[in-house]
Amino acid sequence: MAIGTSVPEAPEGLWFSVLGPLRAWRSGAELPLGPPQQRAMLAMLLLSEGRTVSADRLIDALWGEEPPHAALGTVRTYAYRLRRLLGADVLTSESGGYRLRVPADRVDAARCEALAAEAAARRAEGDAEGALRALGQALGLWRGDVLLVLPGPYAERQRTRWQERKVELLETRLEIDLEQGRHREVVEELAGLTAAYPLRERFAELRMTALCRSGRQADALKAYDEARRVLAEEVGVDPGPALRELHRRVLAADPALVPAAPAPGAPTSSSLAVPSPGASSLAGRLLAERRPGRVETAPALWSPAPRQLPFTASDFTGREAETATVAEALLRPDGMPVVAISGLGGVGKTELAVRTAHRLADRFPDGQLHAVLHDDDGRPTPPEETLEGFLRALGVPAQAVPAGLAERTALFRSAVAGRRVLIVLDNARDTEQIRPLLPVDGCAVLVTSRTRLDPLPGMRFVALGVLTPEESLELFTRVVGADRVAAEPEDARRGVAACGHLPLAIRLLASRLACRPGWGIGWVVDQLEDEHDRRRLDVLRSGTLDVETTFRFSYERLDAAQARAFRLLAALRLPHLPLDAVAAALELSRHEAEDVAESLVDCSLLETPAPERYGYHGLLSAFAQGLCGPEGEPEHIRAALGRVVRRYHGDPGVDPCDVAAALQRYAEGAATTGPERALTAGREHALTAGRAAGAPDLALAAELLLDSTLRHDCGHATRRLGRAALALLGTALAEGDPAAEARVRLALGRLLLEMGTATTPALAELIAARDLCARHALPPVVRAHTHSALGACFARAGRHEDAAHAFRAAATLHDTLGSTAAVVPELLGLARSLAGAGRATDAGNAAATARALCRTLNDSGLEALALSTLGTLAEERGDLDGAVGHFRAALALLRPEERRRTGRTLMSLTHVLRAAGRAAEAADAAARAVEAFTADGDQYGAGLALAELGHATARLPDPDTARLHWSEAHVLLARIGAPEARSLRELSGDHDRSVRTEPWPSWTPARM
Which pTM does this prediction carry? Predict the structure, then answer.
């Protein structure tokens, strides 16, 4: 690197500079290093000299002892951005941390230390001139304060450390200068250094030596007096022994202080020195322009005070809590409050900011400044341009506005000092764009941004979400008119829901309707709800304003990797995106996938309702799907879904609802490669196309469905898995895969049975599955589960002997496989079936065998199931008190998370208590069952439990309460089309309520 320059001479590779503002170049072209905290993280990695830095150390370095809640995610986001900028081979993830692989000679700090070592070696060898050249090069690497403006305790420590190192190198260079007889050349420099570092005694010693050798003994003594005075006044100490001894020697005219002759032709240190980077700064010029006796006065800039806030929308709706939060933060009495409002484009950030600013205008009497920080084409407005506008608004003449950014910032802060001014900065790109626009204490700043800004000291963040359904309908009504909404209330609610409760979308839809009074709300909403119509966003357009343009503004700020992820994840059309699904779809590690997803969250293009879970706003998903290039092709979508299915397969911890969504989309993806392809071009063609796209075998998807159906114990997943099973059954039939078909039919039959539907559809699926298992020799475990499900179905239909035969077959198969834990439920099912068939002794023997196995297994869950079965057997015998005891003992063994089994056991207890005439206890058990099913998400179970609660309450002196429970049960069951709703309609008296008549559940298959 040339002395005093900041761009490397090497034409290729990376070069980093930390001895000043952090900068980097690749092949001579400077790289954009991002926001300050991201650069601070890069600085720590650079100064760690190739060592791995843990995430915890990075968090401590950036935030100190009080990191924000999302600190780890922020670090990962910075790592993702830096890796994308520098290269995956340069920044690597290792052992829970990060390592920067950069040769030492490509970092100026390491280069500086190498030159310092070279100087020391040359000095020891007697090569003073070589030492001076090396020190000159080392000092020439400095371009100002180390890591200038970077935040965090680590950057502050490094500034102190490297400032000390620079002073040490200066001392060494000046010592050599004096040794070489260059005392006259360094006198002036030493005068400046003693003024800059008045407590550093070594500089005072060198200055006195240089003065004495220059024949200026009196000045040397005066320099000592100045140093002694400063030390006494500043820290209350006397000069140290070395400085006192030098003072004595000067007084005694020590011959050793006689000036030495300079070496012939030797370069002076001034020829190696680097001009101060601040010499041409605004402060430097102001100092140069000062004259003795001159009094500087600030120009009068405040007539009149600026009032730049735009108008507020008359239909602004809701946001009272957010407005109060922002206002409270802006009125904080200490310092300079900065409030940053972030959120999705169209969510109403600007409206909230402007409305709040108007409300607080009287609290900022010296003016309100407003600037939009991008131009009409979406390009960020340079802060110099914004500052020019602010200065002109404050009364600075055009010719008096300085040219440089630093000068404009300084003048702006001087102009608002001592004033109460509110500055509103709309649509900021990043923190760097607003940093020069920040005023001084007493003022306040309100910023809006689509991206999450890097934090500034004292910054308050407000994440703005969509409106509530009630606020959405209120906004829609204000624009469309109350009469039209009253005429079509349900369609109006559908409309705001289809807009995703996004204020801009609601306003555009309402404006479109307001200009077309002859159009029905429902007709327009039907277009908006069509998820398969990529043009549906055209509905949300009014004049030159539309939702798509707003979204595109954010999208075009993404880099290539982010943009691809944004498109591909949307093309999957999954309602939720767990981190594992994101990683599989994008073919990344979990760590890399989280970096990408979190960066999209920071850009307000992805939502994160919980850790490691992501999703799209509905309209944003539609926009992203409309952008899809290759990612939107059916083969690419199915390949990505196939990777998700593979990732889920064999993972017992995956949410069954996530499995259901992936499998349903996988099956639909198979269909979108064309049912015609599968049905008319033949099975081979379809299989070849699917495998070429990277899709997994259908067998894998069928196994995942069956495993999830067997494993899950939550009502909210049953309907989703049922719809996925029906979709996957069509794929299995189209591809002619009997093994997959058997597994899918088994899962479908079990799910239909769980929903409590009539036994005929479930029985048909299970018999078909049994026959397929027999014909195609499926594994014994699949046959065992098929017989078990058939047993439950036969028992539900009252065919107890058939049920006993099926349970016995299932128990035998499980026993053959050596799975004792799986044998126990089959024996208990056998016991219940035998009791139903009137074979009490055989039932008791089967139950006793099951209990004996439970004790050997020490499994509380199986023990609870056994006790519940004993309760059923006792009820069959008429031993109601014994049944109650068994059911209560079973409940005591169930874990809190086993909500479905708890609900079912409570329902059995309710029946027995009602039969025993213990109505109050029955009502209590039924109420607890309602709670368990509701928490489980099982609407069907909750409806039946409410009906039981009504039956129990009817026996108490409170018939009105019973009808209320029957009415609630009727509404819940009628909503999902359950047949039990009909009888409850009569009991509750809800004769005006309609009951659905289509097949229930909605995913009941026609015979396929």
Answer: 0.63
